């Protein structure tokens, strides 16, 4: 080997070998980097498809969850129904013909109630008027005055009414008489209609 003992040659040869080794290492790193870039590029290209697959899987999972919840609820309902049937020993009450509401009251009869109401109202009105008259402190006539004072009455002065006052009194009495008759007729008509319609 020529120049094998030359120190400068040996240094240069050593540096050249070192550079060749670095070059080979850098080539290997470059090749690995290219492969890694291709892998990343392939993954980037496949990302939309992966998103679609993920969305489809998520949707299927949600549907399966809903179906599971529905089936679970149905199972719980069936278990409860089975427990109820076991506790009741299968007995079931079914109303075939439900009861009907009565058309007319059975008791008390409406006619008797209306008649009692009319009689009670009539006698209650007269009784109230008589009680008010008896409890009134007014004095009417000489007999009441003698009872209150225990003294004899020497003379009485009759009420002197004019022709107009007499006419007004007679007209008032006729109005009261006809009003009473009209009320009785209306009450009788109302009772008759009630019995007719019932």
Detailed description of the structure:
The chain contains 4 helices and no strands. It has helices spanning 7-88, 110-135, 141-149, 163-197. α2 (110-135) packs antiparallel against α4 (163-197). The radius of gyration is 61 Å and the shape is rod-shaped. The N and C termini lie far apart (147 Å). The mean pLDDT is 78.
Summarize the structure.
The chain is an all-alpha fold.
Task: Please supply descriptive tags for the structure shown above.
single chain, 198 residues, mainly alpha, 2 domains, rod-shaped
Topology:
Layout (H helix, E strand, L loop, with lengths): L6 H82 L21 H26 L5 H9 L13 H35 L1
Helix pairs in contact: 2-4
Number of helices in the DSSP assignment: 4
Overall average pLDDT? 78
What portion of residues belong to β-strands? under 5%
Shape: rod-shaped
> Could you list the spans in which at least 5 consecutive residues all have pLDDT below 50?
none
Query: Distance between the terminal alpha carbons, to the nearest Å?
Result: 147 Å
Largest beta-sheet characterization? none
Overall tally of structural domains: 2
| Secondary-structure-derived class | mainly alpha
Helix content: over 70%
Q: What is the chain-wise order of helices and strands?
A: HHHH
* Number of DSSP E strands: 0
């Amino acid at each position: 080997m020529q120049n094998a003992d030359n120190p400068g040659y040996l240094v240069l040869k050593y540096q050249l070998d070192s550079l060749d080794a670095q070059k080979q290492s850098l080539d290997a790193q470059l090749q690995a980097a290219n492969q890694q870039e291709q892998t990343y590029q392939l993954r980037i290209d496949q990302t939309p498809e992966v998103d679609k697959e993920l969305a489809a899987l998520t949707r299927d999972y949600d549907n399966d969850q809903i179906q599971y919840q529905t089936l679970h609820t149905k199972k719980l309902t069936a278990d409860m129904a089975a427990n109820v049937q076991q506790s009741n020993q299968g007995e079931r009450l079914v109303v075939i013909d439900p009861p009907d509401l009565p058309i007319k009251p059975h008791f008390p009869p409406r006619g008797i109630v209306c008649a009692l109401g009319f009689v009670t109202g009539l006698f209650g009105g007269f009784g109230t008027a008589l009680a008010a008259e008896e409890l009134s402190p007014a004095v009417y006539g000489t007999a009441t005055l003698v009872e209150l004072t225990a003294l004899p009455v020497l003379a009485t002065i009759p009420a002197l009414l004019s022709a107009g006052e007499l006419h007004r009194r007679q007209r008032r009495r006729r109005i009261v008489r006809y009003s009473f008759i009209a009320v009785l007729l209306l009450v009788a008509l109302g009772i008759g209609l009630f019995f007719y319609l019932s």
